[in-house]
Give the backbone structure.
Amino acid sequence: METTRITPSRLAKRAHYDAETIHSILDEALFCTVSYVADRQPMAIPTAFARKEGQLYIHGSVGSHFIRQIEQGGPVCISVMLCDGLVLAKSAFHHSVNYRSVVIFSEARKVADEAEKMDALALITDHLVPDRWADLRPTTESELRKTTVLAFSLAEASAKVRTGGPNDDPEDASLPTWSGVVPMQTVRLTPIPREGEEDIPLPAYLVQ
Ligand SMILES: Cc1cc2nc3c(=O)[nH]c(=O)nc-3n(C[C@H](O)[C@H](O)[C@H](O)COP(=O)(O)OP(=O)(O)OC[C@H]3O[C@@H](n4cnc5c(N)ncnc54)[C@H](O)[C@@H]3O)c2cc1C
């Protein structure tokens, strides 16, 4: 859905609205920031999430202030970003970032159906560590009751993508200042076992 509020006012050529681009960014990012207004106070809360088809799921304690605020409904804006590189130009003005980001306008739907709730919790767990859910003891009724799961439609969303090198002014081209891109990515390092449990073998899904 293309609406006025998801149309960037600047550099619209970097904007994308197709599900493929939006979903691929959401599937690679591990965390999102959920923004809303409570009592005229803007709030922006980082949290884990997962996507299934055209929906994004988050979870939290039933006692969480943030979850209780947004489960009542009302406008929510969710953003996600992946930083692919720092773009170093010859002037401060033209420094930039290579990124892939998504902005979503939506409203929370509290997931009441137990099967959908459990499915969402598995999705969130496996989004962070693929194949982890199947390795865990089953979630109990009591744990499920203590957890709220919220779903958000991705119908009103935009992606923005910047790639490439610096765009310097032609008159700066001969300056001897180094320019180019410092690539960036999120990398998983070697897992560290819990103290005293070094004999438990590392599961295949954690072997890099
Ligand atoms: C890692 C990172 C660093 C950035 N650093 C800067 C910076 O230092 N200075 C700066 O001015 N900009 C920066 N940006 C770009 C910034 O996110 C905005 O896109 C930009 O400020 C211009 O937005 P606009 O005025 O066109 O958007 P607006 O007119 O304010 O937004 C209109 C609509 O466009 C869409 N939109 C705008 N930006 C994005 C986005 N990034 N991703 C998805 N949808 C979007 C949203 O749907 C939004 O509601 C950065 C982006 C990222 C991801």
Remarks:
- The first strand starts at residue 15 and ends at 16.
- The mean pLDDT is 95.
- Helices lie at 19-28, 65-70, 114-128, 141-145.
- The chain has one domain: 4-206.
